[in-house]
Design brief:
The chain is mainly beta. It has one domain. Helix content is 3%, strand content 32%. A five-stranded antiparallel beta sheet has the order 1-4-5-9-10, with no helix packed on it. Strands 2-3 form a two-stranded antiparallel ribbon. It has a two-stranded parallel ribbon with strand order 6-11.
């Protein structure tokens, strides 16, 4: 605090690289296994939990009438969408197959809300691979991400005296002040009717 105001701000730029399988979070589907169990090194790439940009701002204001106003504002990138093929036609003893990447951008245009209500990914960006092939898409692609997540929480607090030795606090907290919808990532299997 400096006088009647203060706070903290932080920005994190990171890159999570791994070759993990089965990792997941509520926002994105998991990558169940290696495409080629005999070449696990080829699976190394961006981790499914990779969040390259995160900004947190936490201002605090002491108002003249004894009320303290604080907030936490968090803005971060969306998680990677691990695109896969809905059909495994490798004819090998694997349970999954990756898609083939095309020259088209898999991301649709529009702002966050338009894409969430419409279609997040376009099927033109990936294709079901031919029989007896693995598919050209990597395990994860840093350019294919789910919706970014923003959140604003606000708290208003006032300290009150209960007796000569005891003090209490009246507090009002509002979580997700802007009512920003948190959504899971899109259906990630190319060839399925709900892809994207």
């Amino acid at each position: 605090m400096a006088g009647k105001w203060g706070g903290r701000a932080s920005y994190t730029h990171s890159r999570l690289m791994d070759n993990q399988f089965g990792e997941t979070n509520f926002m994105q589907p998991s990558t169940p296994e290696a495409l080629n169990a005999y070449d696990v090194g080829a699976e190394y790439g961006r981790g499914l939990l990779d969040v390259p940009h995160k900004l947190s701002i936490a201002p605090v204001f002491q108002l003249p009438f004894g009320v303290r106003l604080s907030s936490i504002i968090a803005i971060e990138s969306g998680f990677i969408v691990p695109v896969a093929s809905s059909t495994n036609n490798t004819n090998l003893f694997t349970r999954m197959q990756r898609a083939n990447q095309t020259a088209a951008d898999p991301n649709t245009s529009g702002d966050r809300e338009q894409r969430i209500l419409g279609q997040w990914l376009t099927p033109a960006g990936d294709a079901v691979p031919a029989a007896f092939t693995f598919g050209t898409a990597p395990r994860t692609d840093g350019g294919v991400r789910g919706p970014h997540r923003n959140n604003i929480d606000v708290a208003v607090a006032k300290s009150v005296g209960l007796s000569a030795r005891l003090r209490g606090e009246l507090r009002l907290e509002v979580l997700n002040l802007t009512n920003t919808v948190k959504v899971i990532g899109p259906i990630h299997t190319v060839g399925s009717s709900g892809f994207g």
